Amino acid sequence: MSAALVNSNVTAAVAAMGSGDWSSAINYLTQAQAYLVIIPRSKQGDTEMEFDGAGINQLIAQCRKNLAGANGLGASGGIMQSQKVRYVTEADC
Fold it and tell me: 30 near 9, Cβ under 8 Å?
């Protein structure tokens, strides 16, 4: 395993985010997260790298929030919303 696997998945996730494909972004970030379990630290040439797992978690959470908003879910509490209805009968006219 190498840092390139993490980097390629994060790069693909960023591209998916740029096009609004939140579901794919979550999939790529989840793969990157799985690689981090195996290689939390890595060397690339003479450079030692440590990945930010918490940062990936935050990106996944933001993508899920954006995905929920794109699907009509989110701040409103869901797809269903209650509305006040006023019934009018002939006697009311």
Answer: no
Whole-number Å distance between alpha carbons of 54 and 29? 12
Torsion of CA 61, 40, 6, 49, to 10 degrees: 110
- DSSP-assigned letter for residue 45: T
- CA-angle at 60, arms to 55 and 64, nearest 5°: 150
* Residue 14 scores a pLDDT above 90: yes
Amino acid identity of residue 83, one-letter, is Q
pLDDT in tens, 25-57: 999 999 998 888 877 666 666 767 777 778 888
Instruction: Give all domains of the chain, ordered by start, each with its CATH number.
Output: 3-70 (1.20.58)
Segment (H or E) for 47: strand 47-50
For the chain, state the CA radius of gyration: 22
So what's the pLDDT on residue 56? 87
